[in-house]
């Protein structure tokens, strides 16, 4: 494409927006509203997934060893477990450490001297934390094959619940995003269709004097892309300001809740959200205009 053609196409795309300013404004407003809802939804989901991830990281599988298992064997088994792909970390608790903790937290001081020996002599254990709670069943199956391990304690209910929550969130997210995208594409399509109807005579003249299909169609595609860019700029700015204000408000007014829920920083949210919204906005504008031009513009 020549530079002159590019600037002509860009100019015509901008003119189209102002020529159908009310419909263009409606499309920008609709895309902004859809992307704003998408952005809010993403921020909520991102924080929710962060909370679930934190909960998953706190769920562990605990193993206890057969009597007579040496510390060297325990260490060797611990190293093998930690090397597994699904394991994030392991924490070893010796029998003496287990007894010290139990005595300090559960036995009154006046009775602690009544236990001269360690009654938890065979209670050395590993707490095994996973990267993904869904891998718990496979890990437990592996642990049960190790002869030196006597008992494997797992949180099956927690694993099932957290895995189900993650799946539900994924399905709901996909459904809402699809609906918002379809609504936006529909609005862009209507705007471009109106632009084509208004310029039908002009387009016919252009074709008679030898204009190519690309030359005729390009301004409408540019129009859709520009509408998409404008529609993505407003929600980004609004969400950025609103997110900080909401987080600060919750931290100030609901201090107890803020201690339980650790919100992601706005920059962490926008690292993913900003490029996604811009790409989605431009994509909606491009697809809406491109599909409409192919369908309605018979030149």
UniProtKB/TrEMBL annotation:
GO biological process: cell division
FtsX extracellular domain: residues covered: 59-152
Pfam families referenced in this protein's UniProt entry, alphabetically: FtsX, FtsX_ECD
Subcellular localization(s) per the UniProt record: Cell membrane
PROSITE patterns on file: PROKAR_LIPOPROTEIN (PS51257)
GO-annotated cellular components: plasma membrane
Domain of life the protein comes from: Bacteria
UniProt keyword Cell membrane present: yes
Key words, A-Z: Cell cycle, Cell division, Cell membrane, Membrane, Transmembrane, Transmembrane helix
Role description: Part of the ABC transporter FtsEX involved in asymmetric cellular division facilitating the initiation of sporulation.
Family affiliation: Belongs to the ABC-4 integral membrane protein family. FtsX subfamily.
Protein name in UniProt: Cell division protein FtsX
């Amino acid at each position: 494409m020549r530079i002159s053609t590019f600037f002509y196409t860009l100019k015509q795309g901008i003119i189209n927006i102002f020529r159908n300013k009310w419909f263009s404004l409606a499309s920008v407003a609709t895309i902004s509203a859809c992307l704003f809802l998408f952005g809010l939804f993403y921020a909520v989901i991102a924080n929710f997934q962060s909370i679930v991830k934190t909960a998953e990281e706190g769920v562990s599988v605990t193993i206890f060893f057969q009597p007579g298992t040496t510390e060297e064997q325990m260490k060797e088994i611990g190293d093998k477990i930690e090397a597994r792909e699904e394991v994030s970390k392991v924490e070893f608790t010796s029998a003496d450490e287990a007894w010290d903790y139990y005595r300090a937290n559960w036995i009154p001081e006046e009775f602690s001297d009544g236990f001269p020996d360690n009654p938890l002599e065979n209670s050395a254990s590993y707490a095994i934390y996973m990267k993904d709670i869904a891998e718990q069943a496979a890990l437990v199956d592996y642990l049960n094959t190790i002869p030196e391990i006597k008992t494997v304690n797992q949180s099956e209910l927690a694993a099932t619940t957290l895995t189900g929550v993650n799946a539900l969130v994924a399905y709901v997210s996909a459904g809402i995003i699809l609906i918002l995208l379809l609504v936006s594409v529909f609005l862009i399509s209507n705007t471009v269709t109106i632009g084509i109807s208004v310029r039908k005579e002009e387009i016919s003249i252009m074709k008679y004097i030898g204009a190519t299909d690309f030359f005729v169609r390009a301004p409408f595609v540019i129009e859709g892309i520009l509408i998409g860019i404008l529609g993505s700029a407003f929600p980004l700015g609004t969400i950025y300001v609103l997110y900080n204000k909401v987080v600060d408000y919750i931290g100030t007014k609901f201090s107890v809740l803020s201690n339980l829920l650790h919100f992601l920083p706005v920059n962490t949210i926008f690292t993913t959200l900003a490029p996604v919204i811009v790409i989605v906005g431009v994509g909606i504008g491009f697809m809406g205009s491109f599909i409409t031009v192919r369908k309605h513009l018979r030149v």
